[in-house]
Amino acid sequence: MAIKEYHVKPTDRQIKVYIDSEELQEYIVGIKQYLNIQNVETNLLLCKNDNSIGSLATIGTIKDFCETNNIFINSRRIAEKCSVTFELLINEYEVYTQIVKVYVRLALVHELIHVKQIKNGCLTEELVRKESEKTYEDKSYEKEAIHCSKSIIGKSNGFFREVIEYIDGGQVNQEVKEKLLQEYNRI
Ligand SMILES: [Zn+2]
User: Fold this and answer.
1) How far is the CA of 29 from the centre of ligand 1 (A)?
2) Contacts of 99 by beta carbon, 8 Å cutoff, 6+ apart
């Protein structure tokens, strides 16, 4: 499906509002406690140049890991993925807002898991070199981050779990839309 600028722009705005919200700050505090990395300072920032990275979010290099770590969120990239995959739900404003939140949380928690891996010495420059030939999904530290972030966020409710099923570009057709709306009404 093609990217529609008139869908991407408002989604991007929604993401930025959520990133600036008190609600997300509180969420981060809770997740960091859960991951036992509450002592590592993190700053949530927007990517300066939205075309600079292909992924939804990123952290600095392992070498630079310290007491304070920046997590860069690529709002433009998230807005593109979200608006293409969940286009059928864009006019369901409240439901779509929750879907946007799932995307941001997933990207964020994924990076926080990398922070935890680095802090615990499980993700090192040596490991990155060793697995450099593997595809993204096959790298052990990415496998863990992908799996754990989905499982943590899926715990919230059935609607989030359903959204996560399609988040990597699954086909959200009319039938899936109805199922998602049903799950949303159960929250
Ligand atoms: Zn990753």
Assistant:
1) 20
2) 82, 86, 89, 163
pLDDT in tens, 126-141: 999 999 999 999 999 9
Collapsed DSSP state (helix, strand, coil) of residue 68 = strand
pLDDT digits (tens, 9 = 90+) for 9-59: 999 999 999 999 999 999 999 999 999 999 999 999 998 765 666 789 998
- Ranges of H-type helices in 20-92: 22-34, 75-85
Domain boundaries, the chain: 5-186
What separation in Å is there between the alpha carbon of 68 and the centre of ligand 1?
Answer: 18
- Reading the block at residue 138, the tokens are 């096959």
**Separation of CA 175 and ligand 1 centre (Å):** 31
